[in-house]
C-alpha cells in the first residue's frame, strides 16, 4: 500500500493525541486508509473539513508537519490461490520473505450474508477429542471459541482440531501471538505437511496492539474468497480474541468514549458479532467455520469479553485442568456446542444424545458427592460410584489427549455406565438400553 | 408529521453511523432521510437537531461516505407497509423483503418492497355502502394462508366516514381501490388494501384493553402448569448465555395456540434464523393443518446487520402485530434478544455524547422498555370482536447478573418472569426455568383463576400451588441435607427432597428435541400433574435414606418413559401400570387418589 505519485500530500496536522492525528483535508471517505509519515492510519471521524485519523502504531514521534496521503480506499487485501502457504502481517503484507501476492483486490470487513441465503450448518466435523466430538460436536459453518486460562495449552488443542478437521483451507488469524506460538503453528502445520492449505495473518506481541484490529477481517476476507469463489470448506482460527478486544478498548479509551462494563467499549457485542457472524454455510457448498480462543483471567466467564463472546458464538469449549487425573479436560458443564443437535444421533450413532446427557448428569452427581466429601460428610454407595465413574470418564473421554472415533466414545460410555451403575440410575430411554447395555 | 415541504441537506460530519447534516429547511425529530452515496442511497433517521444541523443515524454502513453528500428528507417517520402477503415473509428490521434481494451478500442501500404488488387476492366485502366507519373498521377481507385478513379503514384517518362505494366480491391486487369513503365535509378517500404506519406509534384502533384473563397454551409444562402466560400477556426470559432462551422461545412459537406468530430476531445469530427458515416450512400447524411457516412472519436483524436497524426491528415487529390484532387475531410476538435492542440504544446515545445512565445505557431506558411492553395486550375491537398480542422477550444480562439495567427495567414492565438458571442449565435440567424465582403475576388475577377453574377443573389451582410448595420445601430440605449431611437429618427430609425432584424431573424438565415430549397439551399436563401429586401424597416407608433416592430414581425413570410415549398409548399405559406396581413396594397406605 504505497502512496501514489498523483495523490495529494498534506503536511499540516491540526491536532495530535496518543492514538490519533487530525488535519484539514478534502474529499476523504469514512473508513479510508491513509499513511502518516510512513505509518498506516484510518479515518475514524470527519467533522466538517477536519479529518481524524487513527494511527495504528501510535503517534509517538509524529511531528505536526508529518506527510499525510490518503489511499482512497478502505483496508483491502489481494486474493488469489497464491495466498496458500503464505504468512502475512495485519495489513496483508508478506512476512515470510516471499513475493507480493497477485490477485483481485477486495475490501476487508465487507457486507454480511443475507440470512435467507444461508444454509443450515449440517456437516459434522470430527476431531477425535471426545470432550468435543461426544459432548460438544462441531459442525461446519459454526463459530465456537475455546475459553481457557492463559496457562492452558489452547493453541496446541486448536492446532490438533485444525489438522484433524479435514478442511480445504485453514486460515490462521494470530493476534498478540507470542513469537514462540507463531513458530509453533508454523512448525506443526509444516510437520503435518499441511502448509500449502494454510494462510496466516499474524500480529505478534512485537507489533503494535492496535494493528490487531485488522487481523480478523483480513483472515475472514481471505476465507470468503476460498469459501465463495472456490466453494471450499474453510476453517478460520482466531487466537487470541481477548487481545483483540483489549485493542478495541485501548482505542475507545484513547478516543474518550464512555466505557461500559470492564472498561470495554459499549459496542463490544456488535464489534465481536460482526466478526463471528462471518461463519457461514453457503448454499454452493463452501463454508467458513470459526474456532477461536478467548483467554480468561482466573476462569472468570462473567468478564465482558467472554460474556459477550458467549452470547455471540454457538457455544464454547471450556478447558480446565482436572487435578484428579492430572490432565487438561474439556469441561462438560461449562462447554456447549449449540449446533450439535443438528448432527448427533443422525450423522452419529442413534444413542449419541442419550449417552452424552446421561454421562454429564452422572458427572454432575459426582460433583455433588465431591462437595459432600469436602464438607466432611459420609458418602453413600451411590456417591462412591459416581466418584469412580467421574474419574474414569474424565480419563477416558474428557481428557484432551483422547483421539478415537465417535462410535468408540459411545461404547466407552456404555462400558462405564455398566461398570458403575444400574439401568435405572442411568435413566436412558428403554429402547437404547435394550440395544446397547452390555453389548460391548 | 406536520411537514410536507422537501427539505434537503449536505453531510458535514461522520462518526461511524452517526452523520451530521446541514439542512436548508425544517426537519422533524425521527424524520426519515436518504443520503446519496454514489449509486447508493442510504436510509437514515433524524435523532437530534441543533440549529440547522440534523444528527441522523444511518441504517447502513457509512464506509466511504464523504462530507458534501446530498441528503433528501422525506417528511415522514420510519414506517411499515401493511397489507395482505406479509405472512411467511422474511423481512429485515426495516421490513425489506430479504428474499427479493439479489446475491448472497446484502447490498448497502438495497431496499425491497415488503408486499407483492401483482398478486390478486380474492376479496369479500364485509361493510356495505352507506355504513359509517372509523379507522380500523373492517371493510372487507381476503384470505391469507387460510387466515382471514381484514382490509381496514386506514388507521391514520381520524374522523367518521361514510362508505360511498365498495367493490364487489372478486380478485384484486393490493393497490386496487376497494372502497371510497367520504368524510362529513365531503372529502373522499380512496382505500386500497395497503396502508402505511409509523412503527414507533402504537396502533390504537380498538375499543378497550381489558386485563388478560385466558391462559395461552404453550405446550411447555413449566409455563402452562406452574406460571402460565395469558392471551395478551407479557413475559420475559432472562438468562445467561447458553441457558436456553432461544430454544424456549422457538418451542413456544412452534406450539402456542396463536393465529399469527411474529419472530423478531434482534441482534442474535443468523444461524438461529436459518433454523426457523428450514424448520417451520416442514412443521405442521396442528390447528390449521397447514405448515407453521404460513402463519409466521420473521423479522431478522441479526447481530451482523446494521445496529440502527436493530433498534427499529422490534418496533417493526410490534407494529405488524398490532395490525393483525386489529383484525381480531391472536398474535404471538417474540423478540430475541431485547438486550441487543437496548445495546443499540446505548451505542447511539454514547455517540451523541448524552449523559449516560447506569452501565452507560440511556437515562430513559426504563421508559422505552415500558412503553414497548405496553403495546402488547388483549383488546376489544370496536366491532365487539377481540384480538391480542402476547409478547415474550428474552433478556441477555451482562455477566449473567440479573441486577443489570435491562433486566431490572424489564421486570417492571413484564408480568411473567421466566428466569433461566445457570445451575439448571449446567446440569441439563431443561428448560432451565428456575421454578422458585420465576413467577406469573397472572396467577393472582381473579379473571384467570376463574377461567382456569372452568377449563382445568376446580382443583387445578390448588394443585399448582401445592406443586410449588413441594418444590420449595424440597429445596429447603436439600439445604438442610447439605448442611447436616445425609445421616444428620430425619429420613423425612430425603422424602421431601425427592418428592420435589419428582416434580422437577417429570413436570418441569422437558426435552425440546424429543418429538413427543417437546409439546404437552394441557389435558396431558393435567393428567401428569395429578399423577405426580398423587405420588407426593402417598406415604412411603423406608429403612434408610439410601432407599429413598433409589426408589424415587426408579419412579422418575418410569414417569419419564411415560413422558416419552404417546399419551395413553399402549406403551404409555404399560409404563403406568408398572409404575403402580413399583409404588406398592414402599407405600404405607395408598390413599386411593381422587387425584387432588
Ligand atoms: N429444552 C431444552 N432441551 C434440550 N436442550 C436444550 C434445551 N434448551 C436449551 N438446550 C441446550 O442449550 C443450548 C443453548 O440454548 P439457547 O441457544 O436457547 O441458549 P440462549 O439462552 O438463547 O443463549 P444466548 O443468550 O447465547 O443466545 C442449546 O443449543 C441446547 O443444546
Ligand atoms: Mg439465544
UniProtKB/TrEMBL annotation, chain A:
GO terms for biological process: ATP metabolic process; proton transmembrane transport. Residues 37-72 form the ATPase F1/V1/A1 complex alpha/beta subunit N-terminal domain. Residues 128-324 form the ATPase F1/V1/A1 complex alpha/beta subunit nucleotide-binding domain. The keyword Transmembrane does not apply. Keywords: Ion transport, Transport. It holds the Pfam family ATP-synt_ab_N. It comes from the Bacteria. GO terms for molecular function: ATP binding. InterPro entries: ATP-synt_VA_C, ATPase_F1/V1/A1_a/bsu_N, ATPase_F1/V1/A1_a/bsu_nucl-bd, P-loop_NTPase, V-ATPase_su_B/beta. Residues 346-436 form the ATP synthase A/B type C-terminal domain. SUPFAM superfamilies: P-loop containing nucleoside triphosphate hydrolases. Belongs to the ATPase alpha/beta chains family. Produces ATP from ADP in the presence of a proton gradient across the membrane. The V-type beta chain is a regulatory subunit. This is V-type ATP synthase subunit B.
UniProtKB/TrEMBL annotation, chain B:
Belongs to the ATPase alpha/beta chains family. Residues 20-75 form the ATPase F1/V1/A1 complex alpha/beta subunit N-terminal domain. It comes from the Bacteria. Produces ATP from ADP in the presence of a proton gradient across the membrane. The V-type alpha chain is a catalytic subunit. Transmembrane segments: none annotated. Its EC number is 7.1.2.2. GO terms for biological process: proton motive force-driven plasma membrane ATP synthesis. Residues 219-440 form the ATPase F1/V1/A1 complex alpha/beta subunit nucleotide-binding domain. This is V-type ATP synthase alpha chain. ATP binds at residues 239-246. The gene is atpA. The keyword Transport applies. Residues 113-200 form the ATPsynthase alpha/beta subunit barrel-sandwich domain. It catalyses: ATP + H2O + 4 H(+)(in) = ADP + phosphate + 5 H(+)(out). One of its GO terms (molecular function) is proton-transporting ATP synthase activity, rotational mechanism. Keywords: ATP synthesis, ATP-binding, Hydrogen ion transport, Ion transport, Nucleotide-binding, Translocase, Transport. It is an enzyme of class 7 (translocase). The keyword Translocase applies. It holds the Pfam family ATP-synt_ab.
